[in-house]
Amino acid sequence: MSQEPEVTDLAAVKAALKTQAVETPSWAYGNSGTRFKVFAQQGVPRTPQEKLDDAAQVHAFTGVAPTVALHIPWDRVADYSALAKHAEDRGVRLGAINSNTFQDDAYKLGSICHPDAAVRRKALDHLLDCVDIMDATGSADLKLWFADGTNYPGQDDLRARQDRLAEGLSEVYARLGDGQRMLLEYKFFEPAFYSTDVPDWGTAYAHCLKLGPKAQVVVDTGHHAPGTNIEFIVATLLREGKLGGFDFNSRFYADDDLMVGAADPFQLFRIMYEVVRGGGFTSDVAFMLDQCHNIEAKIPAIIRSVMNVQEATAKALLVDRSALAAAQVSGDVLEANAVVMDAFNTDVRPLLCEVREEMGVDPDPIAAYRRSGWAEKIVASRVGGEQAGWGA
Question: Residues 41, 31: contact at Cβ < 8 Å?
């Protein structure tokens, strides 16, 4: 794989930052909560169209959030072409189509790995329907996450479940059209606590490798055991040409979906450095948020998350790669680490203010959003109806 060209000056760093694109998730604009309670907020969208209206605000104030991921059936509409037109009219586009095979009673024992062929068929029909939606919206990515797994030893045949998974993925893969791809996500546990059918990047990679070039792995930054070296996974998948994208978020302990960069900004920087190092910043790697804002205001939290990704990227681009390579070749451990830490410890906020001003965006996106009056407008206007949220 060809490597990213060397960044040698601030002008090149700024030029690279101006090309960045972070996809926001439609579900982040709706109501969400813990497994015990979903918390309602005033002004939350009631329709997919209103979610896109909010997403357009994030893009307007950051300049780097041009696409919005959909989740089916949460964002089901009668006319997806019209929904794509609505997005375009608001200055954004529809992005990845996310499937949902975890919120139906039939999926209690799994979806495409279920021992019952009828349940597997139901799940596969839904995935194929998602590809139809991709055709209608012009979306390139089908994102798959499966809650499939078991809770007890002996509950099901582990190898048979992998066979069912491979068979199902193969059928969906065959349905993909030109310019479309399948992004397979993994999670090492939850909701299954004994075995998970796609628990790690190796399992996802093995299935994607067998499927072919249109199948790639998604790295959700919250889906790893404590202490996992996520940047190694990123570097390896980039080296193999199998990194399809990220679901950016943070987690403490074992759960995820907090704002990206909130728990460990140094980890996010290390990940982004490997992206820059491995050529992923200028390839088709998708940078997506996968977050739910339960107690904080949603739009400002999403704006802040986009800014966090920008800051980590700016620092990654500032790593003096020539100095780093020289230190590595000479075996100067302390100097190599110092080069990396110098970049991480750089205050890139003034640089990003310059980038935003040159892009015609307010240098302080959060303050600009608060001044805009959008928050007050949606609280006043979105009265009545059913607010969007998990299951809606």
Answer: yes
Beta bridge partners of 136: none
Rounded CA separation 93/83 (Å): 10
Report yes or no: 32 and 389 within 8 Å, Cβ to Cβ.
Answer: yes
pLDDT digits (tens, 9 = 90+) for 13-66: 999 999 999 999 999 999 998 878 888 999 999 999 999 999 999 999 999 999
Long-range pairs of 332-341 with CB within 8 A, sequence gap ≥ 24: 340/273
**Alpha-carbon separation of residue 379 from 25, 47, 147, 211, 302 (angstroms):** 21, 15, 35, 47, 18
Nearest to 351 by CA among 371, 343, 286: 343
Angle (CA) 327 328 329, round 5°: 95
Q: Tell me which residue has tokens 């979610």.
A: 51
Break the chain down into helix, strand, coil percent, rounded to 5: 50, 15, 40
Residue 66, token pair as written in the block:
């041009």
For residue 273, count other CB atoms closer than 10 A to its CB.
25
Residues 273, 267: Cα–Cα separation, whole Å: 10
Q: pLDDT (tens digit, 9 = 90+) per residue, 302-356?
A: 999 999 999 999 999 999 999 999 999 999 999 999 999 999 999 999 999 999 9
Do residues 64 and 388 touch, judged by C-beta distance below 8 A? no
- Strand positions, DSSP E, 21-111: 24-25, 32-33, 38-39, 67-71, 93-98
Q: Angle 71-230-95 (CA atoms, 0-180°, nearest 5)?
A: 25
Structure tokens at 2: 């060809």
Give the span between the Cα atoms of 283 and 81, in whole angstroms.
27
Helix (H) or strand (E) holding 10: helix 10-18
**Rounded Cα distance, 275 and 72, in Å:** 29
Torsions phi, psi for 369 (to 5 deg): -65, -45
Sequence letter at residue 167: E
**CA angle, 53 as apex, 48 and 58 as ends, to 5°?**
120
As a whole number of angstroms, the distance between CA 28 and CA 33 comes to 11
Whether the Cβ atoms of residue 57 and residue 369 lie closer than 8 Å to each other: yes
Three-state secondary-structure class, residue 219: strand
Q: Report whether pLDDT(6) > 80.
A: no
**Strand 38-39 relative to strand 93-98: parallel, antiparallel, unpaired?**
unpaired
Model pTM greater than 0.85? yes
